[in-house]
Amino acid sequence: MQVLRNIGVLATCRAPGGQAAIHPIPGAAIAWENGNIVWVGRESELPPAHGETPSQDAGGRLVVPGLIDCHTHLAFGGWRADEFTQRIEGKSYAEIGRSGGGIVSTVARTRGMAEDALVERCRGFLNAMVRTGVTTVECKSGYGLDRETELRLLRVYRRLQEDGIVSIIPTYLGAHVVPPEFRENRESYLSLVIDEMLPLIAREKLAEFCDVFVEAGAFNIEESRRILLRARDLGLGRKLHADQLTSGGGAELAAETGATSADHLECISSQGIARMAEAGVVAVSLPLASLYLNHKPLPARDMIDTGVAVAVATDFNPGSAPSHHLPMAMMLACTQQRMTPPEVLKGTTLYAARAIGRERVAGSIEVGKRADFAVIDASDVTEWMYYFQSNACVMTVAGGEVVWGEV
Ligand code: NIG
Ligand code: FE
C-alpha cells in the first residue's frame, strides 16, 4: 500500500456531468495497492488504517489522472523536415503527398528499419512522453503497408507493452494509403488488408483496433466501409481518420460502422456531428496536426454542444504532427478549439480512455482503476494550461510505480 498526500487539488475526472465536469477534490489524498487505487478523498478523511502507510507528499500541487495520448503513429523510420520547409514555402500537405513525399516516403524508410531499432526509437519517444505525465498511448501501424513490415510494427508495440511502463493500445492502420507497388491494383491491396491481414491480426491479437484513412487520395467511403465491416466481424474495434482535408462523409461512416472514435474532423459536416452524437462516437481532436498544416481547427464547440465527447491527442507522426508533446496539444486545444481547460483535461483522460476502449481501467482517479496519475506544478487546471512551462509535470505514476520524477 502507498499513499500520496498533500494534494492541493485532485482533478478526478469522473464521468458524470459531461465534458467540463472534472470533479475536483481539494486537500486530497490517494491510496493504492498492487497497482490499483484503493482509496480517494479528502486527506482529512483518510481512514486511520492508511495512517501508518509510507507516503509521498504532493507539495500542495495539482494531481490529474495519467494522461492518455489516444492517437499516435509512434513507430516510423526517418523524419520529413524537408516537407516542413516546403509547406512554409507554400506547398500543401496534399500536393507534397501527390509528388512522392508524404506517407509513402516514410513507408520506404520504415521498411528499412529493423525491429530492434524501431523498439529503441519508440522507447525514447515514450520516455519523453512519460515525463510530461502520459501513462497510456495508442499506437498505429500504417508505415509498413506490406505484410512483413505491418506485422513488425505491431510486434514493436507488443514489446513496448511488455516493458511494463506505458500502457500501449495497438491499432492496425493498413488502410493508411495504397502503397506504390499496388497503385495500379487497388483491389489486390484491399484484398491483402481484408482477407489476409485483418484475420491474421485478429487471430494473433496483434491489434485491438482497425483504423482507416478515409480521404481523397487514400480510401473512399465504399472501400473504407468494406474494411471496417470486416474488422467488426472479426471483433476488432474501429477508428477512422475522417474529414481531415475534405468533407467526405467519414464521420457518418464512423457512426454507421459502430466506430469507437473518429479522428481529425477539421472538415466535418453538421450532419456528421449529429450522427456521431447519436451513435456515441468519440471525436478525437488533433490540434498539433491542424496547426502544423495551417488548417482551421475542428468545430469542437459545436460538437460538445451537440453532445459529442471530444478527446485531444497529439497524432504524433513525421508528417502532419512531428511532436509528441501532449500538454502542448492541450494548450492549443484551449486557444484554437475554444475548449476550456477542464474540458481539455477530460479530453485527455476519461474521454481519451473512451476513445481506446479503456474507460473501465484508466482515465479517472477512482477506486478500482489503475494507479496512473501525474503531479503537476500548478495550483489548478486552468493555471496549468495557461502558464505553458517546458515541463510542468514533476512526477508520473503508472500502474502504481513512480516512472518519472519525485516530489
Ligand atoms: O494522422 N492523415 C493521415 N495520417 C497521418 C499523417 C501521416 C503522415 O503525414 O505521415 C495523420 O495526420
Ligand atoms: Fe493520425
Please explain how this structure is put together.
It is a single chain. The strands form two sheets. Strands 1, 2, 3, 4, 5, 14, 15 and 16 form an eight-stranded mixed sheet that branches. The chain has an eight-stranded parallel sheet with strand order 6-7-8-9-10-11-12-13. The chain has 15 helices and 16 strands. It starts with a strand and ends with a strand. The radius of gyration is 21 Å and the shape is globular. The model has no long low-confidence stretch (mean pLDDT 97). It is of the alpha/beta class. The structure holds N-(iminomethyl)-L-glutamic acid (NIG) and fe (iii) ion. The site of N-(iminomethyl)-L-glutamic acid has 12 residues, from helix 3.
Give the SSE map.
Blueprint: E1 2-11, E2 24-33, E3 36-42, E4 55-57, E5 62-65, E6 67-72, H1 81-88, H2 93-98, H3 103-111, H4 115-130, E7 134-140, H5 147-162, E8 167-175, H6 186-203, E9 209-214, H7 221-233, E10 237-242, H8 250-256, E11 261-264, H9 270-279, E12 282-285, H10 287-292, H11 300-306, E13 310-312, H12 326-337, H13 341-347, H14 350-355, E14 373-376, H15 381-386, E15 393-398, E16 401-405
Parallel strand pairs: 1-4, 1-5, 6-7, 7-8, 8-9, 9-10, 10-11, 11-12, 12-13
Antiparallel strand pairs: 1-2, 2-3, 5-14, 14-15, 15-16
Fe (iii) ion binds at residues 71, 73, 241, 315, 317.
